[in-house]
Design brief:
The chain is an alpha+beta fold. It is about 25% helix and about 35% strand. It contains five helices and twelve strands.
């Protein structure tokens, strides 16, 4: 959880506010409420009541009282256990708590011993981080299963195998490196083919990939040779 805390005075109070926000964030994420937050923030009348009640209950259980959630904006106003006002603005991607409290400071330049401190707790990208993980069954369709996979032509004749996978700057598949040749008078060499040129099919029964490419020996022989950087 990425978080930053900016405050002056009453550090223990800032820690309390942080704990309250963490509890609220965890409760919302555990119930998958990030989507609901987006719906409620966009004035979705069907989503608002249940989500607002959920937020209200979670914050009350965290020790806040007089919790009021503004429909549509998701601005939360409440009172903490010390009787100080707390304002929170909640969005699907970030949750920010802003608490204004009074404290005594003998060195106050105004000489009245009173000042206002602003404690800002910024929990950024919490929802996005929680949604970054997923459960994938063991042995599911993995990229490693493609390396070494035989490639056949339309006549079901082997033309080579997948040797490597080329990626672009964005992490998308840019092409497949095929090791071809050694048959039909073609010397063994590597060629790069477009992803769309290779028809990959998953056999759910056998739990295996199959690869097919519509090409001929003449086309493979004339294709530019791919060479790894030395």
């Amino acid at each position: 959880m990425a978080a930053s805390l900016s405050m002056r005075g009453r550090q223990g109070y800032g820690v309390y506010v942080m704990k309250v926000m963490k509890l609220a964030v965890i409760a919302l994420l555990a119930t998958g409420s990030t989507v609901a937050i987006a719906q409620a923030a966009s004035n979705d009348s069907t989503a608002q009541p249940s989500v607002i009640q959920r937020v209200t209950n979670d914050l009350q259980q965290s020790g806040l009282t007089n919790v009021k959630v503004e429909p549509g904006s998701f601005v939360v106003n409440a009172t903490d256990r010390n009787g100080d006002p707390v304002s929170m603005y909640i969005t699907p991607d970030s949750m920010t708590a802003i608490s204004e409290v009074a404290f005594s400071d003998g060195g106050d330049n105004q000489g009245n011993g009173q000042a206002r401190a602003t404690n800002v707790v910024d929990v950024s990208q919490t929802a996005a981080a929680a949604e970054a993980f997923r459960t994938i069954p063991a042995g599911d369709r993995l990229g490693t299963q493609l390396i070494g996979l035989d490639v056949h032509n339309a006549a079901n004749k082997s033309i080579g195998s997948i040797k490597d996978i080329a990626m672009d700057e964005s992490g998308h598949v840019n092409g497949y490196i095929l090791s071809v040749g050694g048959f039909l008078g073609i010397d063994e060499h590597d060629v790069a083919v477009r992803p769309s040129a290779l028809n990959l099919t998953w056999n759910g029964h056998d739990k295996k990939w199959s690869a097919e490419m519509d090409t001929t020996a003449a086309q493979l022989k004339a294709a530019p040779q791919y060479k790894y950087a030395s």
